[in-house]
Write a structure and sequence with these properties.
Number of strands: 9
Strand content: 15-25%
Oligomer: single chain
Order of helices and strands: EEHHEHEHEEEEEHHH
Structural class: alpha+beta
Distance between the termini: 26 Å
Number of domains: 2
Length: 221
């Protein structure tokens, strides 16, 4: 069964081509990001709109609607900056179906209203599935009581480490972000260790790596 790919109800179809200049109007991207749009993105289609009217689930303050975008790309690995720009322009959670040749993958950010100002949205870490065949069999939408519950289940299909029992989505995402940060730190220290000549310094760096690995084991458990 496909990972993160769902069969969306026909009633939720929106199917509008989204011109890049419309995104530029709302997100005001830098010239560098505009260049990325030109070099990496072929077409953006706003494909489905999951809302109380289209899928008969009540909205919640943090999840009034869920949008599904299909993006045909010119390169295998489009920049996250492009997706962040679209996310800044559109104040709803968005799942991106990235299409490259005959392959497809889903990328999404955990997106929520700011605790400090509910009119502003916080775009947290991005998560993605692996590439799959565009003809992969899709699963039905997860069963949920409201759009917030649906969003949680859809997002968790893209998160590499499963949630703990009773773990809220916000805490689950925060834990994954911590894991990713510590993995980066560990990689940097390993690179320094390879170049280090002094024995005492090597001992210190090895101790730091061991401590980080213990923290990672604890966070991943």
């Amino acid at each position: 069964m496909s990972q993160g790919l769902f069969s969306y109800p026909a009633k939720a179809a929106f199917n509008r081509i989204l011109p890049k200049n419309k995104i530029y109007e709302h997100a005001k991207p830098s010239n560098r990001v505009r260049d990325l749009f030109v070099s990496q993105i072929q077409q953006i289609t706003w494909q489905y709109k999951l809302s109380p009217e289209t899928i008969n689930l009540p909205s919640r303050p943090g999840v009034p609607e869920i949008q599904i975008f299909s993006i045909t790309v010119k390169i295998n690995d489009p920049s996250e900056d492009v997706l962040r720009c679209i996310d800044e322009a559109i104040p709803f959670p968005i799942f991106y179906q990235i299409i490259f040749g005959n392959k497809i993958k889903v990328i999404t950010a955990y997106k929520r209203p700011s605790d400090a100002d509910s009119t502003k949205w916080v775009i947290d870490a991005y998560f993605e599935t692996s590439w799959q065949s565009i003809d992969s069999e899709r699963s039905g939408l997860p069963v949920a009581l409201d759009l917030a519950g649906l969003y949680t289940q859809m997002l968790r299909q893209c998160i590499p480490i499963p949630a703990r029992n009773g773990e809220a989505l916000k805490d689950h995402v925060a834990r994954i972000v911590q894991i990713q940060s510590k993995e980066k730190e560990c990689k940097k220290i390993k690179a320094r260790l390879q170049k280090e000549k002094q024995f005492n310094r090597k001992v210190e760096l090895n101790a730091q790596i061991r401590a980080l690995k213990n923290e990672l084991d604890s966070l991943s458990a």
